[in-house]
Amino acid sequence: MRIDVVTLFPEFVQGCAGIGVIGRAQERGLLQVQTWNPRDYATDNYRRVDERPFGGGPGMVMLIDPLRAALTAARTAAPAPVRIAYMSPQGTRLTQDKVVELAQRERLILLCGRYEGVDERLLQHEVDEEISIGDYVLSGGELAAAVLIDAIGRLQEGALNDVQSAQQDSFADGLLDCPHYTRPEAHELGKVPDVLTSGDHAAIRRWRRKQSLGRTWVRRPDLLTGVELKVEDKKLLLEFQEDIKK
Ligand code: ADE
Predict the structure, then answer these.
(1) So what's the pLDDT on residue 115?
(2) Using the 8-state DSSP alphabet, how is residue 139 labeled?
(3) Catalytic annotation present for 40
(4) Active-site entry in 68, 107, 154, 209
(5) Which of ligand 1's atoms lies nearest the C-alpha of 136?
(6) What is the pLDDT of residues 104-126, one digit of tens each?
(7) What is the pLDDT of residue 164?
(8) pLDDT computed for residue 47 by the predictor
(9) What is the 3-state secondary structure (H, E, C) of 10-56?
(10) Domains with residue ranges and CATH for the chain
(11) Does 137 contact ligand 1 (Cβ within 6 A)?
(12) Annotated catalytic residue 93
């Protein structure tokens, strides 16, 4: 997959995309992240990329033409059809389902705004969708783009060393993840639940599913309204509710 990012801070995005799982995915040729700086496409002597807003008010608004030229350069750099997403708090809230959908595409262009935002006409004519990573305001779209690149990149086949990792993620099946433990088995902070060291794989699977259901019920009950629980899951959740009463 190829992701092009239009940003005034290319080093920032490249830095984030160059480390850990995503850096490795790039090294393995599973993902390519390319950046385009609108300042390189500004045509005046000052290389202006922003101006004061019509109608007055605080801050600056990003100019249409440098952004449009950078988007065109990104779009024409590779032949596959591409979707253009603007990272913005006004966008549709990002979910794991959306990440899975985007991860299946061959190409994606992410547009990062700075200052008060981007001239609305550019958004109307050049952008396919707006994506928000949450109900809070960042000083620019770069961190949001880095979040999206990370979430998409780790789903590329071969990016995670263990394929089961992604299948067991929180949200992969609409539920939160279960708790995890490693060595030592006994520690002053507590003991690992017996079932995990029992070697009984069916019991371990059952315990993990129960914890997943229970945690989701406690922490994010809103997620449970979106899933139809099977009879066995309902039983496990009831057991969890009984367990915590004890
Ligand atoms: N840019 C600024 N805030 C943002 C947010 N919450 N999500 C996506 N892009 C943003």
Answers:
(1) 78
(2) S
(3) no
(4) 154
(5) 6
(6) 999 999 999 987 899 999 999 99
(7) 74
(8) 97
(9) HHHHHHHHCCHHHHHHHHCCCCEEEEECHHHHCCCCCCCCEECCCCC
(10) 2-153 (3.40.1280.10), 168-245 (1.10.1270.20)
(11) yes
(12) no
